Amino acid sequence: MILLASSGGAFDGGFLTLVVALIAIFIIALFLIFLRKRTFPILNLILIRIFKGKYSFEYLEFFKKNDLRNPLNNCIRDEITLHFSVFYKRLKNAQEFSTTIPIEFKDIPFLTTYRKLVNDFGTPHCINIARFDKMRVKVVGYHETFHQKKMKSLFYFIENEFVMGEFVFSEARRMDPTQVLEALSKKYLNGQELTGDVFYITGPLGNILNFHDNGFFASVKYLYRGDDRINKILDNVFAHAHQNGQAFRKAMIQEELLNRF
Question: CB–CB of 153/106 below 8 Å?
Fold first, then answer.
């Protein structure tokens, strides 16, 4: 009798353990099923950060695709496509100039790689991303000052190559644009007086400068036009942008839908 009782107790204990284990597995399975939409993306994000880094295109695109807040600061609030399109459809009442001086952005050569820029300037203060069709586009920015006024220097990359630069003066209402105009005129136009709110300057190598002061902010953009491969990418998206160009509409829709933060 004693032996039978002992065996029965052992059996009951083992059976209970098995039941508890099955219940635990069932609960975990339910948890994964109900939370798989969050669990697996989070694991994917962790892997992207480990192998690509938190400043990589893939890491930032994860947040866009999953409608999550950008973990980094945005350089611009509107679409990246709009910053390029001003060179393909001239802004209203714009003046046109030409210069014999090569148009360059600061002392950073065009086609500089993203990695080299970060190595030289350090961690960016802000980042935006987009896609022009299948081409990856990234904007990185740094805070600077111009005559004691806040300014951002923005670097636009297509497939990690620097193709456009931009100075943004967000304090346009408190900044006298005369200083900016005088600096541009002195460098490119032999001191010719500039008084307009918007104008373009084309350089000897085809690079184009655009100045625009809309009353809220002023900006100076520098577009590189010296590489046939880059020109083809941009022309495919923007050359017919304002004639219902399919590539431009696709880029705008894609960027607008992904800009949820």
Answer: yes
